């Protein structure tokens, strides 16, 4: 709930109300910790459930709680699917700091940092279910997502040192105990090879198919198009849902999306 003057307004949507009821039935509400944080002029309300292992964030600034469809919530998690580590918050000298719920670690919050203390962040967006009013089959010929393109100048290639191994897979050490490294490295990040991954659900979001990747565009390619073609046909009466995922440490801003589709006869 949110208080506006003397009026109380519900800010959670129906999906979250159902989720919170599940937590309450299992006694997983008492450990909820929440705080407000302001980032780039936007105020966010963060709710962290440790036992339930979920973090939900509400955009206070842009949301309109009087309308169900304008209550802007999203979920934050780390790469393995666990809740976000931020548990406590402090603001000092113009910087937001958050404390880890599991380890004695204090993090600074920076909008120009695109990793969780070096760990990859999965940016994911799932669209709402789309189905024609008459439950016809649909064929998707092309799907394009509009991104903030060409803004990867700060990304540098990263490499991983490779050890020299024996035939049995053991590391070969020097007399001083140092690993012997190979001359070649394993490239982990390549600024010229950034991809957005798309997976599709043809059963209303219950299951998703394989991930198809499409290039995001290189430095300076600000009119590049990220698109997928020939995405198949949905079964009659089933909704079409798309999921976009991105893993590289660069800005990932979705401006919109469009598709070319055709409703098929019975």
Strand portion? 35-45%
Q: Total number of helical segments?
A: 1
Order of helices and strands: EEHEEEEEEEEEEEEEEEEEE
Helix content: under 10%
What is the CA-CA span between the terminal residues? 47 Å
Output the strand order for the largest sheet: 3-4-5-6
Category by helix and strand content:
mainly beta
> Largest beta sheet, briefly?
4 strands, antiparallel
Total DSSP E strands: 20
How much is the average pLDDT? 86
Q: Per the principal axes of the C-alpha atoms, what is the gross shape?
A: globular
Radius of gyration: 23 Å
* Unreliable spans: none
Explain what you see:
It is a single chain. By secondary structure, this protein is mostly beta strands. 5% of the residues lie in helices and 44% in strands. It is built from one helix and 20 strands. The strands form seven sheets. The chain has a four-stranded antiparallel sheet with strand order 3-4-5-6, with no helix packed on it. Strands 12-19-16-17 form a four-stranded antiparallel sheet, with no helix packed on it.
Summarize the structure.
With 266 residues, this protein is mainly beta. The chain is 5% helix and 44% strand.
